Task: structure prediction
Amino acid sequence: MHAFRSHTCADLTKADVGQTVRLSGWVNRIRDHGGVLFIDLRDHYGVTQLLCDPDSPVFSEVEKVRSEWCIRIDGEVKARDESLVNPKLPTGEIEVFIRDLDVLGAAEELPLIVFGDQEYPEETRLRYRFLDLRRESMQRNMTLRSDVVASIRKRMWDSGFREYQTPIITASSPEGARDFLVPSRLHPGKFYALPQAPQQFKQLIMVSGFDKYFQIAPCFRDEDPRADRSPTDFYQLDMEMSFVSQQDVFDTVQPVVRGIFEEFGGGRKVDAEWPQISYRDAALWYGTDKPDLRNPIKMQVVSEHFRDSGFAIFAKLLEQDGTEIRAIPAPTGGSRKFCDRMNAFAQKEGLPGMGYIFWREGDDGMEAAGPLAKNIGPERTEAIRQQLGLGVGDAAFFLGGKPAKFEAVAGRARVVIGNELGLTDQDRFAFAWIVDFPMYEKDEETGKVDFSHNPFSMPQGGMEALNGDPLDVLGYQYDLACNGYELISGAIRNHKPEIMFKAFELAGYGEDEVRKRFGGMVNAFRFGAPPHGGCAAGIDRIVMLLADTANIREVIMFPMNQRAEDLMMNAPSEATSDQLMELGLRVLPKED
Result:
């Protein structure tokens, strides 16, 4: 017999009754039924119920066993009484009578209980992650992640892509976040960087003639943590293709991503139609460039109904340049209680409040109610209702000013309204390509123009577009949104040096600086670079959606905490004086 097991804890069935078997695993749960001990033994594959009574030669030893001890047992497979069969377990028809026991690893008092669904502080879970990972939900999440990655690889190979690896130690590159710098011992005073993405390398792979590339790539960004973002490193499906248009990339990626969600989505509906929505329209309709299309609410501009109206706040706002009034329709939200609740939400978000109108049955038919309705009168109110397509029992909420100031709050309000009114279809994955991103943005305080997205994107219209107002330039840039999250970001690349120099010049980077920072890529583009484009899909975020969790740390095996600390491995840690000396570095003391 094998030294540790003849079967896993998911293998045994009624067909094995009478056999002598050997199992190894962890003690999941112990139950004492009047001198008869029942132990649920757990391994990665499943659970088997063990039985021990005073007739067993090792009964006294089994009595000492505690939760999470790692043990090996030999025993005889017995059939359970029909009344005691557990149909939820593959092994639910049998149990194993313990004849011999070997403790492979005893456990001290547990800082968290593995069995069950008890909640523990995240700090405890991450400090003892090796215990947390034993829990059923975490085993399920990590298995899901592994299976998703394996399926992605197969689908990419089946689509004609090959996997190539790019360097982990490279040069610093402006990708929109801070780099993790690595000091060079051989070149004192100089630094490598961990790649924020394999961006330049994958473009160089295209220049090198490898038509289709992909990689499950680790990426490193020194970012502030969020529930849906790791503060240090993450994995992405990175891909690039030569001789393609934007639509070619969409047509290639869509069946891969849709197939993953159909395979691992647990039966939830996966939308077949993926609309293409401009960045400008997404901001207007949804208040975000990663809209949740499961929610049918679409915001609209209603400025004309409030211009020169009796509602002085909005009327005066509209006298200023660049201002507008937007409405958030709320079908079935037509009660004062719900409207007051949403007004309180806006105040928590830092706004004075949200105006509202709701429609109800009156003595003479439908009537509009709420402070706004009284101020603007029945004609304007009726025009708003007709524009929004609302009726009795519905409501609308209003925000005004410069869109940049209220757009994000409006987007969050749309999400809350959709959820609270039951309008959002929770059992569905809804995708949308967000396209036509602006290439540049202006800092309102400094007036400086900089890239708003990927700096290596081809501007729509090429060089000619760059000769006008930079803020009017759109890029061949695109994101894929799903259920309110950005899953993919990509672009058709700028492969012509003269256009690249001009694009960077508008953002304040001179030709010399571009050559210095991106010399390898600029040099390569001088020697017959093909048109190319691609994208990157966030593996962690995809698995997070499939696992139906809102916290990305639930699908990362060893994540950092909210302060970018690894409590289990005690990182980051101080360097020794010898290490600093070897690197020619000195740590400045903290200022009080």
